[in-house]
Amino acid sequence: MIYTDYHVHSTLSHDGISTMNEHIEKAISQGLKELCFTEHYDIYDGVKSNLKTIDVENYNNEFLKLKEVYKDKINLKFGIEIGLQPDIEEIIKGMVKKYDFDFVIGSSHITCKKDISKDISFFEGISRHQAYMKYFNEVLKNITIYDEFDVYGHIDYIVRYGGYEDKTLEYDEFSDILDEILKLIIKKDKGIEVNTSGIRYGLNTPHPNVDIIKRYKELGGSIITIGSDAHRCEDLCSNFEDVKDMLKDLGFTYYTIFDKRKPIFIDL
Ligand SMILES: [Zn+2]
Ligand SMILES: [Zn+2]
To answer: Could you tell me if residue 12 is inside a domain?
Structure first.
């Protein structure tokens, strides 16, 4: 059994549904030994959005209280999911330095100053291929700029958006840029996550898809975390057994957890 979940949002995130307490209680009832919260941290400067950046100080305080309360029942980890953007380097570096994170996911949510999940103008006037390339180029730029992340989140997240009927992503169509992304992640001793929300989202595949995970392994990638991206506690560890089988089929013999941003490898 995969005994932890490394991508979880509570009501402290703008789109969270379950409280931290509800997630923790559910995790304990499911027999998890550990749970890693990864609340959203996105910067909306220059972006058309009414959302606000999370108050990390408040998150840290709430977390530390609960870690103490539940210390004999479950090991709680302090993580964050940062929406990386190339031009907010100082804000991100300062924030990550200030807190004692166990784990940091770097993701692309706002791309080219647009929230791709909501702002369709990102996709307008260009082809699907061009839109995906615009997204992947910014992912690559973020990986080049930042060291303040441990794994890159849901690398092919773009496939959910743009309103295209076909939500599959063929590795071959984007092999050059995907290889560049994966090679740089590996070179920087970072990793990727397997994010099972894609399966819940009806895509029939986790993020990234199996071909990309396979390629990551072929290129020598080893750090790989498993996260549900649960926003409600019912989704904790969803489809983790399927992912476990998939990773084993691809030749992985372990998955990764983090402690104070240092990877620890756990047998699958
Ligand atoms: Zn995300
Ligand atoms: Zn998330």
So the answer is: no
Asked if residue 4 belongs to a domain, the reply is no
What pLDDT shows up at residue 68? 98
Give me ligand 1 centre to Cα 39, in Å.
9
Buried b (16+ CB within 10 A) or exposed e, 145-164: bbebbbbbbbbbbbbbbbee
15 within domain boundaries: no
Query: Closest ligand to 117 CA?
Result: 1
Q: How far is the CA of 8 from the centre of ligand 2 (A)?
A: 7
Host domain of residue 65: 20-267
Q: How many whole angstroms from its chain centre is CA 39?
A: 10
Going from the Cα of 268 to the center of ligand 1, the distance in angstroms, rounded, reads 25
16 CA to centre of ligand 1 in angstroms: 12
Ligand 1 centroid to Cα of residue 139, in Å, is 13
Q: Say if 9 falls within a structural domain.
A: no
Give this prediction's pTM. 0.98
pLDDT of residue 243: 96
